[in-house]
């Protein structure tokens, strides 16, 4: 399906997932209004996020970018005044599990208040379609595996997961109160990898909180070694198991969701897992990355982090059945593309002494 003539507002567009999804939507001819507050992306000289400058370069297409902060509703009003928005894709959120345990109030304020502000303006301006970037963290410590969409939610093990759960509940309530609204909640597992060109990828600001960016930074010499948190989990090798999904598979999943949501008959709330359906341990990820990069990844074990679960991987049949979603990339593919990005951009989007 072509998005020609349809305008999509993307919040958190300069971030890792947002930028790759914007790329996919531009390829499908959607008009993109992109919003970011630069908390987790690098600003270019023209006031665009560097990631979105590169997205335009890759696609040969243009987008409209506006700096705005969802916690400051006044910065969003001009966008709803100026553009005839058909659908919102909501990525903007703080997202680090460990940080959320240290700074819970910051997470509740940013993630929950920001989402409420966004939906308040959608209500005011008659925008009735939203795709929400949720997370497998809403499932908490899984009661069974693989995790399907009917798994109980809300018993979250960290404040980040709780903010995603609260945001889901707010959206369900809004849809229940407004029968002409349509919401798709996408619970995705662990996005990794990069666009195959190596021009855009994951560039966490500060010390990476997620596994793959840290591994990549060790491989490129930005970090001395990796710390593996916990080797006493009830898993095959004692390290945590996660469902890693290639960022381009995830981007296509969002495009499929928008295509479906924009059908006039699509109302109410639909919830889908986006993953591969397979779990990989930390040690398996390290092994795959070493194979992809040809680099040795030194690591040491440390105690478990608060809020981390032992194993979590998805059952994705519902997305396959209703959205025609399918993951195409292997763990090795993810590591290869991550390495292409990191080796071409040793300092991420920020020019460094060793940048090419």
TrEMBL record:
Entry's Gene Ontology cellular component terms: cytosol
Organism: Lepeophtheirus salmonis (Salmon louse)
Keywords tagged on the record: Carbohydrate metabolism, Galactose metabolism, Isomerase, NAD
Any GO MF annotation of the entry: UDP-glucose 4-epimerase activity
Gene: GALE
Swiss-Prot/TrEMBL catalytic activity: UDP-N-acetyl-alpha-D-glucosamine = UDP-N-acetyl-alpha-D-galactosamine; UDP-alpha-D-glucose = UDP-alpha-D-galactose
Cofactor section: NAD(+)
Pathway in which this enzyme or protein is active: Carbohydrate metabolism; galactose metabolism
EC number: 5.1.3.2
The protein, known as: UDP-glucose 4-epimerase
Domain NAD(P)-binding per the UniProt entry, residue ranges: 9-338
Function as written in the Swiss-Prot or TrEMBL entry: Catalyzes two distinct but analogous reactions: the reversible epimerization of UDP-glucose to UDP-galactose and the reversible epimerization of UDP-N-acetylglucosamine to UDP-N-acetylgalactosamine. The reaction with UDP-Gal plays a critical role in the Leloir pathway of galactose catabolism in which galactose is converted to the glycolytic intermediate glucose 6-phosphate. It contributes to the catabolism of dietary galactose and enables the endogenous biosynthesis of both UDP-Gal and UDP-GalNAc when exogenous sources are limited.
């Amino acid at each position: 399906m072509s998005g020609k003539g349809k305008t999509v507002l993307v919040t958190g567009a300069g971030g890792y997932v947002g930028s790759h999804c914007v790329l996919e939507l531009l390829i499908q001819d959607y008009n993109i209004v992109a919003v970011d507050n630069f908390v987790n992306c690098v600003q270019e000289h023209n006031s665009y996020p560097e990631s979105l400058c590169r997205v335009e370069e890759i696609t040969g297409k243009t987008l409209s970018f506006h700096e705005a902060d969802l916690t400051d509703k006044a910065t969003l009003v001009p966008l709803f005044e100026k553009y005839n928005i058909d659908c919102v894709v909501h990525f903007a959120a703080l997202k680090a599990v460990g940080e959320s345990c240290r700074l819970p109030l910051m997470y509740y304020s940013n993630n929950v208040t920001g989402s409420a502000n966004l939906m308040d303006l959608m209500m005011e301006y008659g925008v009735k379609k939203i795709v929400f970037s949720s997370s497998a963290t809403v499932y908490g410590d899984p009661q069974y595996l693989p995790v399907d969409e009917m798994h109980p939610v809300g018993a979250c093990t960290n404040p980040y997961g709780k903010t995603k759960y609260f945001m889901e509940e707010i959206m369900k309530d809004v849809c229940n109160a407004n029968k002409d609204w349509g919401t798709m909640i996408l619970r995705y597992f662990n996005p990794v990898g990069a666009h195959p060109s190596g021009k855009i990828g994951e560039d966490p600001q500060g010390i990476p909180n997620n596994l793959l960016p840290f591994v990549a930074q060790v491989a490129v010499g930005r970090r001395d070694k990796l710390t593996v948190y916990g080797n006493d989990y009830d898993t095959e090798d004692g390290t945590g198991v996660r469902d890693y999904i290639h960022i381009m598979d995830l981007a296509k999943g969002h495009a499929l969701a928008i295509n479906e949501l924009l059908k006039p008959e699509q109302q109410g709330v639909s919830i889908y897992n986006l993953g591969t359906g397979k779990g990989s341990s930390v040690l398996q990820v390290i092994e795959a990355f070493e194979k992809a990069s040809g680099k040795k990844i030194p690591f040491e074990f440390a105690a478990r982090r608060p809020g981390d679960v032992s194993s979590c991987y998805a059952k994705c049949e519902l997305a396959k059945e209703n959205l025609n979603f399918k993951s195409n990339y292997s763990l090795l593919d993810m590591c290869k593309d991550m390495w292409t990005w990191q080796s071409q951009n040793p300092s991420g989007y920020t020019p460094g002494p060793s940048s090419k």
